[in-house]
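## Example pair
The file below holds two records. Each record gives the amino-acid sequence first, followed by its structure token line.
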Amino acid sequence: MIRQPSGYTSRLNHCPSPELKTLPFDTALALIGFAFVMSVSPGPSNFLLLTSGVNFGFGRSVPLILGISIGFLSMVVIVGLGLGQVLKAHPYLGHGIRLACGVYVVWLASKIARSRSLGSGGDQQIGKPFGFVEAAMLQLVNPKAWTVAIIVTASYVDPGSPAASLAVLVALFALVNVPSISLWAISGKALRIFLGEGNRIVVFNIAMAVLLVASMAPVILASVQ
């Protein structure tokens, strides 16, 4: 029988396990702060959430919330796995994405601006809430989403362990993103009663349409230059 050196078993039991924490605590806090600011700040998706909350309430806006979040996080994964480098190497692809985004958002804004009442049904209403797939696909033409995805992966993905750090990044961002963007839909629901009187909803929807286009104006101008 081979006897182990004295203290061998003790040292083995206390041998440090592989590093599971791929982000230092201070880096994780910085990522959480970044995720909150980027998630809660105004942008095309959040204007849509506010509009949906006003017109349909929070419950019927949940598919929109999940679609926006999952669509964006999928973009982060794709960019983190290499698409970001492709876009840097081929700038014309980025111009094409921004131009497509501008066209789509203008069409979306025109649809919102034509809405004249709360609820659903009728030619002058937003007939139904934006669905999960629509929301997820919107992220493909959302310049804010592309910009944040590229920044966050470049800043927080560890080149030494890209897959693990990307997984932690996505998990942390998801924990912050969903409740943060939900605030816009909740705020919209809180405004339903006030905006349901007279023609206030008409003014609100037109204002949201204008803000939606305004949020895209720099992107559209950059694409045509």
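Second record, same layout:
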Amino acid sequence: MILVAEPEEAVRESIQIILREEGCNCHAVGDCTSLLRAIRIHESCLIIADIHIVYDNVGEILAALTHYATIPPLLIMVSYERMGDMLYLMKFGITEYLIKPFTFEELLEHIQKTIIPKPNTPI
């Protein structure tokens, strides 16, 4: 399952529709409280989250993920204006990001790149 955390309802719903059309099981939320609840309920292979949801809550989000056998990658959606904030998140090991605005093709390509193991990487 892919977990999507996006505060803008139209963007959240669009991402959810595209993922489902591609055959992905997904769950979408609009705020950090809902994201933390979803992390505890759903076993996710990927979390796609807007930087506005993650930035002030990164420690709490990463702590919630500790019950997973393997912590899923976090793909952060970020605008050019907030790219500097990615440096802060990188201190926590969050290195995957997608710059807004993006096309759905770019999103799907990035998802595929993020969740498919790279060569010589243990599964």
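Notes on the second record: The mean pLDDT is 91. The chain has one domain: 2-115.
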